[in-house]
Input
Amino acid sequence: MTNVPEINFNNGEKIPQEGLGVFLMKDKDQFMKAIKWAIDAGYRHFDTAAFYGNEEWLGQALKESGLKREDFFITSKVWNSDHGYDKTKAAFEKSLKKLDMDYLDLYLIHWPADHYIESWQAMEELYKAGKIKSIGVSNFKEHHLEDLMAHTEVKPVIDQVETHPYFQQKELVKYLHDHEIAHEAWSPMGRGSDGIFEDTVLKNIAAKHHKTIAQVILRWHLQRQTVIIPKSVHEDRIKENIDLYDFELTNEEMDKIATLDTGKRIYRDPDDTQWLQKTANTPLPE
Output
């Protein structure tokens, strides 16, 4: 098994620094194979969400692995249409039932849609009851975190946000570090269509280390103390994405990658209140 390092949370718990994200995995047969390949390759951290519609498959795949529940670190998230105290509690129980588990390692508020404070208060209760080992957020900017922490008791352990070499979130990363909140990157390699896999700087660094550009990007995240959840349904990519622990980027290489930041998102802005409102009013399918 690959020796994936762990990141310490502010509550004393730990998270494997690398896991497999399962967003957009919508074919069950493909999904089950991907989880098996990932487990065989050494992944023990899996990141899902109610919105992804595949929690049930993940629970089934982990059961079929023959490993114990405590061997895994499992994250899920509450969707925008389930915000509010009672709705969040019900959504959590639904996720737990689909995963066929009696606790989660990490539960996140997926987006800062309205009523996230009431959702957090429900999550605090579930955390104190031992149903969730750690609670955190996803797609929260500094002002969302300030608002949340001003009105609640338990500090988030992590913020999962879009982060890649072309959108490095330097100010948010500093804020999280200063507040002892872990930083987790979704879409850690950006998007192929943005030209990142043809980038000359990354190509040169990859050639020097005899690694792929994807491996260089993921290694850059690791050395920034970022938790990463690269997604793939291809066996060779799944193996490649965890083969990161036999090389290191130099300070000069890290500095070169730092210059690639465009400050531009590829995906949704967490301050897009119109979209947040729309999704909050659209319930997830049963």
Q: What stands out?
A: The chain is about 40% helix and 15% strand. The chain has a mean pLDDT of 95.
